[in-house]
Amino acid sequence: MKPERCYLVGADVGTSGFKTSIIDARGTVQGAASRELITAHPHPGWCEQNPEDWYRALRDTLAEARQQAQVSAADIAAVCIDAAAHTPVLTDARGNVLRPAIMWTDQRTGDQVRQLEAEHGDRIFTIGYQAVNPTWTLPQLLWVAQNEPEAARRTTRVFIAKDYLRWRLTGTWATDPIDAMSTLLFDAANRRWSPLLIELARFRPEQFPPVQGPSSIAGEVLPQPAEELGLRPGTPVITGTSDSALEMYGAGAVDAGQCVVKLATAAYTSVITDQARPHRRTLTYYHVVPGLWYSVAATNSCASAVRWFRDVFCRDLVHRAGTEGKSVFAMIDELAADAPAGADGVLFHPYLLGERSPHWDPDLRASFVGLSMRHDFRHVARAVLEGIAFSLLDCLSSVEALGLEAREARIIGGGAASPLWRQITSDVLGLPLVHPEAADASFGAALLAGVGIGVFADERDAVKRCVRIKARIEPDDQRNQRYRSIYELYRMTHAGLADVYHRARETYG
Predict the structure, then answer these.
(1) Quick check: pTM over 0.90?
(2) Cβ(256)–Cβ(273) below 8 Å
(3) Residue where a domain stops, chosen among 226, 244, 262
(4) Tens-digit pLDDT profile for residues 300-334
(5) What φ, ψ does residue 5 adopt, rounded to 5°?
(6) Would you list the DSSP string of 379-400?
(7) Coil vs helix vs strand at 428
(8) Interatomic CA distance for residues 416 and 123, integer angstroms
(9) Which domain holds residue 295?
(10) φ, ψ for residue 214 (rounded to 5)?
Protein backbone atom coordinates (compact mmCIF):
# COMPACT_ATOMS: atom_id res chain seq x y z
CA MET A 1 0.00 0.00 0.00
CA LYS A 2 1.39 3.40 -0.97
CA PRO A 3 2.00 5.67 2.06
CA GLU A 4 -0.14 8.47 0.61
CA ARG A 5 -3.15 6.12 0.59
CA CYS A 6 -2.39 4.55 3.97
CA TYR A 7 -4.95 5.57 6.55
CA LEU A 8 -4.97 4.45 10.15
CA VAL A 9 -8.02 4.27 12.42
CA GLY A 10 -7.91 4.85 16.17
CA ALA A 11 -11.09 4.34 18.21
CA ASP A 12 -11.39 5.38 21.84
CA VAL A 13 -14.05 4.13 24.26
CA GLY A 14 -13.88 6.99 26.75
CA THR A 15 -15.64 7.29 30.07
CA SER A 16 -18.34 9.63 28.78
CA GLY A 17 -17.80 9.64 25.03
CA PHE A 18 -16.58 7.62 22.07
CA LYS A 19 -14.20 9.08 19.48
CA THR A 20 -12.82 7.72 16.23
CA SER A 21 -9.95 9.39 14.36
CA ILE A 22 -8.48 8.65 10.94
CA ILE A 23 -4.91 9.79 10.31
CA ASP A 24 -2.49 9.50 7.41
CA ALA A 25 1.10 8.29 7.57
CA ARG A 26 2.29 11.81 8.46
CA GLY A 27 0.05 11.94 11.52
CA THR A 28 -2.39 14.46 10.05
CA VAL A 29 -5.93 13.91 11.28
CA GLN A 30 -8.06 13.51 8.15
CA GLY A 31 -11.34 12.79 9.87
CA ALA A 32 -12.70 12.56 13.42
CA ALA A 33 -16.09 12.06 15.01
CA SER A 34 -17.43 11.54 18.50
CA ARG A 35 -20.59 10.45 20.29
CA GLU A 36 -21.69 10.73 23.90
CA LEU A 37 -22.02 7.51 25.85
CA ILE A 38 -24.81 6.96 28.33
CA THR A 39 -23.74 6.02 31.84
CA ALA A 40 -26.43 4.56 34.07
CA HIS A 41 -26.51 5.28 37.81
CA PRO A 42 -29.11 2.76 39.09
CA HIS A 43 -27.99 3.30 42.70
CA PRO A 44 -25.94 6.03 44.43
CA GLY A 45 -22.29 5.59 43.51
CA TRP A 46 -22.99 3.12 40.70
CA CYS A 47 -21.70 3.81 37.16
CA GLU A 48 -22.51 1.31 34.41
CA GLN A 49 -22.55 1.22 30.60
CA ASN A 50 -24.04 -1.09 28.01
CA PRO A 51 -21.23 -2.56 25.84
CA GLU A 52 -23.59 -2.65 22.86
CA ASP A 53 -23.52 1.16 22.93
CA TRP A 54 -19.78 1.03 22.21
CA TYR A 55 -20.30 -0.99 19.04
CA ARG A 56 -23.01 1.37 17.80
CA ALA A 57 -20.79 4.36 18.59
CA LEU A 58 -17.89 2.78 16.66
CA ARG A 59 -20.17 2.23 13.65
CA ASP A 60 -21.50 5.79 13.68
CA THR A 61 -18.24 7.62 14.36
CA LEU A 62 -16.27 5.55 11.86
CA ALA A 63 -18.83 6.32 9.15
CA GLU A 64 -18.70 10.04 9.92
CA ALA A 65 -14.88 10.14 10.12
CA ARG A 66 -14.59 8.25 6.82
CA GLN A 67 -16.94 10.71 5.17
CA GLN A 68 -14.83 13.63 6.42
CA ALA A 69 -11.60 12.00 5.28
CA GLN A 70 -13.08 10.85 1.96
CA VAL A 71 -11.39 7.46 2.22
CA SER A 72 -12.60 4.09 1.01
CA ALA A 73 -12.62 0.89 3.02
CA ALA A 74 -9.64 -0.31 0.95
CA ASP A 75 -7.60 2.73 2.03
CA ILE A 76 -7.82 1.83 5.73
CA ALA A 77 -4.67 -0.11 6.54
CA ALA A 78 -5.31 -0.97 10.20
CA VAL A 79 -7.56 -0.33 13.18
CA CYS A 80 -6.64 0.01 16.85
CA ILE A 81 -9.11 0.35 19.73
CA ASP A 82 -8.44 1.66 23.23
CA ALA A 83 -10.74 2.17 26.20
CA ALA A 84 -10.88 3.35 29.77
CA ALA A 85 -9.11 0.77 31.90
CA HIS A 86 -10.51 -1.44 34.68
CA THR A 87 -13.94 -1.87 33.05
CA PRO A 88 -14.91 -5.57 32.98
CA VAL A 89 -17.32 -7.13 30.48
CA LEU A 90 -18.55 -10.59 31.48
CA THR A 91 -19.80 -12.98 28.78
CA ASP A 92 -21.15 -16.50 28.76
CA ALA A 93 -20.05 -19.39 26.53
CA ARG A 94 -22.02 -17.97 23.57
CA GLY A 95 -20.58 -14.47 23.93
CA ASN A 96 -23.68 -12.95 25.51
CA VAL A 97 -23.01 -10.05 27.89
CA LEU A 98 -24.24 -11.08 31.33
CA ARG A 99 -24.53 -7.68 33.01
CA PRO A 100 -23.73 -4.03 32.31
CA ALA A 101 -20.05 -3.09 32.41
CA ILE A 102 -18.97 -1.62 35.76
CA MET A 103 -17.04 1.58 35.06
CA TRP A 104 -13.81 2.57 36.78
CA THR A 105 -15.67 5.54 38.31
CA ASP A 106 -18.08 3.18 40.12
CA GLN A 107 -17.90 3.40 43.91
CA ARG A 108 -20.07 0.45 44.99
CA THR A 109 -17.18 -1.71 46.21
CA GLY A 110 -16.37 0.08 49.47
CA ASP A 111 -17.10 -3.03 51.56
CA GLN A 112 -15.06 -5.26 49.25
CA VAL A 113 -12.14 -2.82 49.30
CA ARG A 114 -12.13 -2.71 53.09
CA GLN A 115 -12.29 -6.51 53.27
CA LEU A 116 -9.47 -7.03 50.74
CA GLU A 117 -7.26 -4.38 52.30
CA ALA A 118 -7.72 -5.69 55.83
CA GLU A 119 -7.11 -9.32 54.94
CA HIS A 120 -4.73 -9.21 51.97
CA GLY A 121 -3.69 -5.59 51.33
CA ASP A 122 0.07 -6.04 51.59
CA ARG A 123 0.11 -9.16 49.40
CA ILE A 124 -2.08 -7.54 46.77
CA PHE A 125 0.22 -4.52 46.62
CA THR A 126 3.33 -6.68 46.38
CA ILE A 127 1.96 -8.67 43.44
CA GLY A 128 -0.13 -6.07 41.61
CA TYR A 129 1.87 -2.90 42.42
CA GLN A 130 -1.35 -1.09 43.42
CA ALA A 131 -3.24 -0.42 46.64
CA VAL A 132 -6.80 -1.72 46.72
CA ASN A 133 -9.49 0.85 45.93
CA PRO A 134 -12.82 0.90 44.06
CA THR A 135 -11.14 1.71 40.73
CA TRP A 136 -9.84 -1.79 40.22
CA THR A 137 -11.45 -4.82 38.58
CA LEU A 138 -10.49 -7.07 41.51
CA PRO A 139 -12.99 -5.56 44.00
CA GLN A 140 -15.53 -5.12 41.18
CA LEU A 141 -15.45 -8.84 40.39
CA LEU A 142 -15.56 -9.72 44.08
CA TRP A 143 -18.70 -7.57 44.33
CA VAL A 144 -20.24 -9.51 41.43
CA ALA A 145 -19.31 -12.84 43.05
CA GLN A 146 -20.86 -11.79 46.36
CA ASN A 147 -23.95 -10.01 45.04
CA GLU A 148 -24.64 -11.61 41.63
CA PRO A 149 -23.27 -15.16 42.04
CA GLU A 150 -25.27 -16.48 39.07
CA ALA A 151 -23.55 -14.00 36.74
CA ALA A 152 -20.16 -15.00 38.13
CA ARG A 153 -20.98 -18.70 37.72
CA ARG A 154 -22.11 -18.27 34.10
CA THR A 155 -19.06 -16.19 33.12
CA THR A 156 -16.86 -17.93 30.56
CA ARG A 157 -14.75 -14.93 29.58
CA VAL A 158 -13.76 -11.73 31.35
CA PHE A 159 -13.00 -8.94 28.88
CA ILE A 160 -11.66 -5.46 29.52
CA ALA A 161 -13.70 -2.90 27.57
CA LYS A 162 -11.50 -2.44 24.50
CA ASP A 163 -10.88 -6.18 24.24
CA TYR A 164 -14.62 -6.88 24.10
CA LEU A 165 -15.11 -4.37 21.29
CA ARG A 166 -12.12 -5.75 19.38
CA TRP A 167 -13.53 -9.28 19.82
CA ARG A 168 -16.73 -8.07 18.17
CA LEU A 169 -14.62 -7.17 15.12
CA THR A 170 -12.23 -10.14 15.00
CA GLY A 171 -13.54 -12.98 17.16
CA THR A 172 -10.15 -13.16 18.90
CA TRP A 173 -9.83 -13.11 22.68
CA ALA A 174 -6.76 -11.36 24.09
CA THR A 175 -5.56 -8.40 26.10
CA ASP A 176 -2.34 -6.47 26.58
CA PRO A 177 -0.10 -6.16 29.68
CA ILE A 178 -1.18 -2.59 30.53
CA ASP A 179 -4.89 -3.38 30.60
CA ALA A 180 -4.14 -6.67 32.36
CA MET A 181 -2.25 -4.72 35.01
CA SER A 182 -5.23 -2.37 35.36
CA THR A 183 -7.37 -5.21 36.71
CA LEU A 184 -5.24 -5.69 39.85
CA LEU A 185 -5.35 -9.39 38.98
CA PHE A 186 -1.98 -9.41 37.22
CA ASP A 187 1.48 -10.28 38.54
CA ALA A 188 3.29 -7.09 37.52
CA ALA A 189 6.85 -8.31 38.03
CA ASN A 190 6.35 -11.60 36.18
CA ARG A 191 3.90 -10.24 33.55
CA ARG A 192 1.28 -12.95 33.94
CA TRP A 193 -2.12 -13.45 35.54
CA SER A 194 -1.92 -14.05 39.28
CA PRO A 195 -3.85 -17.16 40.39
CA LEU A 196 -3.88 -15.81 43.96
CA LEU A 197 -5.41 -12.44 43.04
CA ILE A 198 -7.95 -14.08 40.75
CA GLU A 199 -8.89 -16.42 43.60
CA LEU A 200 -9.42 -13.40 45.87
CA ALA A 201 -11.96 -12.14 43.32
CA ARG A 202 -13.64 -15.58 43.46
CA PHE A 203 -13.10 -16.12 39.75
CA ARG A 204 -10.93 -18.67 37.89
CA PRO A 205 -7.73 -18.23 35.80
CA GLU A 206 -9.31 -19.80 32.68
CA GLN A 207 -11.81 -16.93 32.57
CA PHE A 208 -9.02 -14.46 31.69
CA PRO A 209 -7.52 -13.90 28.22
CA PRO A 210 -4.06 -14.49 26.76
CA VAL A 211 -1.74 -11.47 27.03
CA GLN A 212 0.18 -10.03 24.07
CA GLY A 213 1.95 -6.79 23.16
CA PRO A 214 -0.09 -3.61 22.58
CA SER A 215 1.23 -3.19 19.01
CA SER A 216 0.73 -6.84 18.00
CA ILE A 217 -1.87 -7.77 15.39
CA ALA A 218 -4.72 -9.35 17.33
CA GLY A 219 -6.77 -10.46 14.34
CA GLU A 220 -8.57 -9.34 11.19
CA VAL A 221 -11.99 -7.81 10.67
CA LEU A 222 -14.57 -10.53 10.02
CA PRO A 223 -17.03 -10.28 7.11
CA GLN A 224 -20.14 -9.39 9.13
CA PRO A 225 -18.64 -6.53 11.19
CA ALA A 226 -16.82 -5.40 8.03
CA GLU A 227 -20.19 -4.97 6.32
CA GLU A 228 -21.74 -3.28 9.36
CA LEU A 229 -18.84 -0.90 9.90
CA GLY A 230 -17.82 -0.15 6.31
CA LEU A 231 -14.43 -1.83 6.57
CA ARG A 232 -12.63 -4.25 4.29
CA PRO A 233 -12.77 -7.88 5.49
CA GLY A 234 -9.31 -8.90 6.60
CA THR A 235 -8.27 -5.42 7.78
CA PRO A 236 -5.69 -5.90 10.58
CA VAL A 237 -6.82 -4.97 14.09
CA ILE A 238 -4.08 -4.14 16.58
CA THR A 239 -4.31 -5.35 20.19
CA GLY A 240 -4.25 -1.83 21.64
CA THR A 241 -4.23 -0.83 25.28
CA SER A 242 -5.73 1.60 27.81
CA ASP A 243 -6.80 5.14 26.98
CA SER A 244 -4.39 6.75 29.45
CA ALA A 245 -1.40 4.88 28.00
CA LEU A 246 -2.30 5.90 24.45
CA GLU A 247 -3.13 9.52 25.17
CA MET A 248 0.27 9.89 26.85
CA TYR A 249 1.82 8.22 23.84
CA GLY A 250 -0.15 10.40 21.42
CA ALA A 251 1.09 13.48 23.29
CA GLY A 252 4.66 12.42 22.51
CA ALA A 253 5.66 11.42 26.05
CA VAL A 254 8.02 8.56 25.27
CA ASP A 255 11.08 9.25 27.43
CA ALA A 256 11.82 8.83 31.13
CA GLY A 257 11.23 12.06 33.06
CA GLN A 258 8.50 13.44 30.83
CA CYS A 259 5.27 14.49 32.54
CA VAL A 260 1.67 14.60 31.28
CA VAL A 261 -1.29 16.46 32.79
CA LYS A 262 -4.76 15.53 31.60
CA LEU A 263 -7.97 17.55 31.89
CA ALA A 264 -10.81 15.26 30.82
CA THR A 265 -13.75 13.45 32.44
CA ALA A 266 -11.24 12.63 35.14
CA ALA A 267 -7.78 14.16 35.47
CA TYR A 268 -4.31 12.98 36.26
CA THR A 269 -0.64 13.82 36.45
CA SER A 270 1.77 11.21 35.17
CA VAL A 271 5.56 10.88 35.02
CA ILE A 272 7.42 8.36 32.85
CA THR A 273 10.11 6.28 34.55
CA ASP A 274 12.70 3.75 33.43
CA GLN A 275 11.76 1.36 36.21
CA ALA A 276 8.69 0.58 38.28
CA ARG A 277 8.04 2.96 41.20
CA PRO A 278 5.04 1.32 42.92
CA HIS A 279 3.54 3.31 45.78
CA ARG A 280 0.25 3.02 47.62
CA ARG A 281 -0.77 6.59 46.77
CA THR A 282 -0.14 6.34 43.03
CA LEU A 283 -0.92 4.00 40.12
CA THR A 284 1.90 2.15 38.38
CA TYR A 285 1.75 0.91 34.78
CA TYR A 286 3.87 -0.37 31.94
CA HIS A 287 4.37 2.18 29.16
CA VAL A 288 3.61 1.54 25.48
CA VAL A 289 7.35 1.88 24.78
CA PRO A 290 8.99 -1.39 25.92
CA GLY A 291 11.10 -1.02 29.05
CA LEU A 292 9.39 2.14 30.32
CA TRP A 293 6.82 2.61 33.08
CA TYR A 294 4.71 5.50 34.27
CA SER A 295 3.47 6.58 37.68
CA VAL A 296 0.03 8.20 37.82
CA ALA A 297 -1.85 10.16 40.44
CA ALA A 298 -5.47 10.75 39.46
CA THR A 299 -8.50 12.73 40.57
CA ASN A 300 -11.95 11.31 39.85
CA SER A 301 -13.82 14.46 38.77
CA CYS A 302 -12.54 16.99 36.26
CA ALA A 303 -14.54 17.85 33.15
CA SER A 304 -17.29 15.76 34.69
CA ALA A 305 -17.39 18.29 37.54
CA VAL A 306 -17.63 21.16 35.06
CA ARG A 307 -20.47 19.38 33.25
CA TRP A 308 -22.20 18.85 36.59
CA PHE A 309 -21.77 22.56 37.33
CA ARG A 310 -23.22 23.38 33.90
CA ASP A 311 -26.23 21.10 34.35
CA VAL A 312 -27.05 22.15 37.92
CA PHE A 313 -26.15 25.85 38.03
CA CYS A 314 -26.06 27.08 34.44
CA ARG A 315 -29.45 26.32 32.90
CA ASP A 316 -30.04 29.94 31.92
CA LEU A 317 -26.56 30.09 30.43
CA VAL A 318 -27.20 26.88 28.47
CA HIS A 319 -30.33 28.48 27.02
CA ARG A 320 -28.42 31.64 26.10
CA ALA A 321 -25.63 29.63 24.49
CA GLY A 322 -28.16 27.77 22.37
CA THR A 323 -29.95 30.90 21.17
CA GLU A 324 -26.69 32.78 20.50
CA GLY A 325 -24.90 29.84 18.88
CA LYS A 326 -22.08 29.86 21.44
CA SER A 327 -20.38 27.22 23.55
CA VAL A 328 -21.73 27.22 27.09
CA PHE A 329 -18.28 26.21 28.37
CA ALA A 330 -16.70 29.21 26.62
CA MET A 331 -19.31 31.42 28.28
CA ILE A 332 -18.50 29.90 31.69
CA ASP A 333 -14.82 30.62 31.00
CA GLU A 334 -15.58 34.25 30.16
CA LEU A 335 -17.38 34.73 33.47
CA ALA A 336 -14.72 32.86 35.45
CA ALA A 337 -12.00 35.01 33.87
CA ASP A 338 -13.77 38.07 35.30
CA ALA A 339 -13.09 36.86 38.87
CA PRO A 340 -9.64 37.25 40.47
CA ALA A 341 -7.21 34.41 41.09
CA GLY A 342 -8.40 32.69 44.25
CA ALA A 343 -12.06 33.58 43.51
CA ASP A 344 -12.08 36.02 46.46
CA GLY A 345 -11.97 33.21 48.98
CA VAL A 346 -14.32 30.62 47.43
CA LEU A 347 -12.90 27.08 47.45
CA PHE A 348 -14.27 24.07 45.61
CA HIS A 349 -13.39 20.44 46.38
CA PRO A 350 -14.33 18.35 43.30
CA TYR A 351 -15.07 15.07 45.10
CA LEU A 352 -18.36 14.36 43.33
CA LEU A 353 -17.38 10.68 42.91
CA GLY A 354 -15.25 10.27 46.02
CA GLU A 355 -11.54 10.71 45.40
CA ARG A 356 -8.45 8.86 44.37
CA SER A 357 -5.02 10.47 44.75
CA PRO A 358 -3.81 11.20 47.29
CA HIS A 359 -6.75 10.42 49.61
CA TRP A 360 -8.15 7.16 48.19
CA ASP A 361 -11.44 7.78 49.93
CA PRO A 362 -14.75 6.89 48.20
CA ASP A 363 -16.72 8.66 50.97
CA LEU A 364 -15.43 12.17 50.20
CA ARG A 365 -17.95 14.56 48.67
CA ALA A 366 -17.74 17.86 46.78
CA SER A 367 -18.07 21.16 48.62
CA PHE A 368 -18.04 24.91 48.14
CA VAL A 369 -16.37 26.65 51.07
CA GLY A 370 -16.12 30.35 51.87
CA LEU A 371 -19.20 31.71 50.13
CA SER A 372 -20.58 35.05 51.28
CA MET A 373 -23.09 37.64 50.11
CA ARG A 374 -20.39 39.43 48.11
CA HIS A 375 -19.81 36.45 45.84
CA ASP A 376 -21.62 35.82 42.57
CA PHE A 377 -21.63 33.37 39.68
CA ARG A 378 -18.19 34.52 38.44
CA HIS A 379 -16.49 33.52 41.70
CA VAL A 380 -18.20 30.13 41.84
CA ALA A 381 -17.33 29.36 38.20
CA ARG A 382 -13.67 30.23 38.76
CA ALA A 383 -13.59 28.24 42.00
CA VAL A 384 -14.68 25.13 40.10
CA LEU A 385 -11.77 25.42 37.65
CA GLU A 386 -9.32 26.26 40.42
CA GLY A 387 -10.56 23.46 42.68
CA ILE A 388 -9.85 20.87 40.01
CA ALA A 389 -6.39 22.39 39.52
CA PHE A 390 -5.77 22.14 43.28
CA SER A 391 -6.79 18.48 43.12
CA LEU A 392 -4.21 18.05 40.36
CA LEU A 393 -1.63 19.68 42.62
CA ASP A 394 -2.55 17.03 45.18
CA CYS A 395 -1.84 14.47 42.46
CA LEU A 396 1.45 16.03 41.45
CA SER A 397 2.57 16.10 45.08
CA SER A 398 1.93 12.34 45.27
CA VAL A 399 4.11 11.72 42.22
CA GLU A 400 6.86 14.03 43.42
CA ALA A 401 6.88 12.15 46.76
CA LEU A 402 8.40 9.24 44.80
CA GLY A 403 11.42 11.40 44.03
CA LEU A 404 10.18 12.23 40.53
CA GLU A 405 10.57 15.89 39.58
CA ALA A 406 8.41 17.46 36.88
CA ARG A 407 9.88 20.54 35.18
CA GLU A 408 7.46 20.70 32.28
CA ALA A 409 4.27 18.86 31.36
CA ARG A 410 2.32 18.08 28.23
CA ILE A 411 -1.30 19.04 28.79
CA ILE A 412 -4.00 16.99 27.09
CA GLY A 413 -7.71 16.25 27.29
CA GLY A 414 -10.82 18.19 26.32
CA GLY A 415 -10.33 20.69 29.15
CA ALA A 416 -6.97 21.69 27.68
CA ALA A 417 -8.88 23.43 24.86
CA SER A 418 -9.77 26.18 27.36
CA PRO A 419 -7.02 28.86 27.44
CA LEU A 420 -8.22 30.01 30.87
CA TRP A 421 -8.16 26.53 32.37
CA ARG A 422 -4.73 25.84 30.86
CA GLN A 423 -3.39 29.02 32.45
CA ILE A 424 -5.00 28.31 35.83
CA THR A 425 -3.51 24.80 35.79
CA SER A 426 -0.06 26.12 34.88
CA ASP A 427 -0.27 28.79 37.61
CA VAL A 428 -1.45 26.35 40.29
CA LEU A 429 1.10 23.65 39.43
CA GLY A 430 3.89 26.13 38.78
CA LEU A 431 4.83 24.26 35.59
CA PRO A 432 5.22 25.25 31.95
CA LEU A 433 2.65 23.35 29.90
CA VAL A 434 3.12 22.17 26.32
CA HIS A 435 -0.12 21.66 24.34
CA PRO A 436 0.22 19.14 21.48
CA GLU A 437 -1.76 19.60 18.28
CA ALA A 438 -3.41 16.17 18.58
CA ALA A 439 -3.06 14.16 21.75
CA ASP A 440 -6.24 12.28 22.54
CA ALA A 441 -6.35 8.53 22.95
CA SER A 442 -7.85 7.91 19.50
CA PHE A 443 -4.85 9.67 17.93
CA GLY A 444 -2.46 7.55 20.01
CA ALA A 445 -4.38 4.42 19.01
CA ALA A 446 -4.06 5.36 15.33
CA LEU A 447 -0.29 5.81 15.78
CA LEU A 448 -0.10 2.39 17.41
CA ALA A 449 -2.04 0.91 14.50
CA GLY A 450 0.74 2.22 12.23
CA VAL A 451 3.41 0.70 14.46
CA GLY A 452 1.59 -2.63 14.40
CA ILE A 453 1.61 -2.95 10.61
CA GLY A 454 5.05 -1.42 10.04
CA VAL A 455 4.10 2.04 8.74
CA PHE A 456 6.41 3.32 11.48
CA ALA A 457 9.65 1.63 12.49
CA ASP A 458 8.70 1.61 16.18
CA GLU A 459 6.81 3.59 18.82
CA ARG A 460 9.33 6.44 18.99
CA ASP A 461 9.54 6.74 15.21
CA ALA A 462 5.78 7.31 15.06
CA VAL A 463 6.02 10.09 17.65
CA LYS A 464 8.99 11.72 15.91
CA ARG A 465 7.17 11.79 12.59
CA CYS A 466 3.66 12.66 13.71
CA VAL A 467 3.45 14.60 17.01
CA ARG A 468 3.40 18.38 16.69
CA ILE A 469 3.13 21.16 19.31
CA LYS A 470 0.71 24.09 18.95
CA ALA A 471 1.05 26.10 22.19
CA ARG A 472 3.24 26.60 25.26
CA ILE A 473 1.90 28.08 28.53
CA GLU A 474 4.18 29.62 31.16
CA PRO A 475 3.12 29.97 34.82
CA ASP A 476 2.81 33.43 36.32
CA ASP A 477 5.10 33.55 39.38
CA GLN A 478 2.93 35.96 41.33
CA ARG A 479 -0.24 33.95 40.83
CA ASN A 480 1.64 30.75 41.60
CA GLN A 481 2.72 32.12 44.98
CA ARG A 482 -0.84 33.16 45.75
CA TYR A 483 -2.20 29.78 44.72
CA ARG A 484 0.34 27.97 46.90
CA SER A 485 -0.99 29.85 49.92
CA ILE A 486 -4.59 29.11 48.95
CA TYR A 487 -3.69 25.46 48.44
CA GLU A 488 -2.87 25.19 52.13
CA LEU A 489 -6.43 26.34 52.88
CA TYR A 490 -7.73 23.82 50.36
CA ARG A 491 -5.87 21.04 52.19
CA MET A 492 -7.00 22.27 55.62
CA THR A 493 -10.66 22.33 54.66
CA HIS A 494 -10.36 18.86 53.16
CA ALA A 495 -8.91 17.57 56.41
CA GLY A 496 -11.67 19.23 58.40
CA LEU A 497 -14.48 17.83 56.25
CA ALA A 498 -13.22 14.26 55.73
CA ASP A 499 -14.54 12.99 59.09
CA VAL A 500 -17.87 14.68 58.40
CA TYR A 501 -18.25 12.68 55.18
CA HIS A 502 -17.31 9.43 56.93
CA ARG A 503 -19.95 10.12 59.56
CA ALA A 504 -22.42 11.01 56.80
CA ARG A 505 -21.90 7.62 55.18
CA GLU A 506 -22.78 5.94 58.45
CA THR A 507 -25.78 8.23 58.91
CA TYR A 508 -27.27 8.17 55.42
CA GLY A 509 -25.99 4.77 54.29
Answers:
(1) no
(2) yes
(3) 244
(4) 999 999 999 999 999 999 999 999 999 999 999 99
(5) -110, 25
(6) HHHHHHHHHHHHHHHHHHHHHH
(7) helix
(8) 38
(9) 254-438+476-509
(10) -60, -35
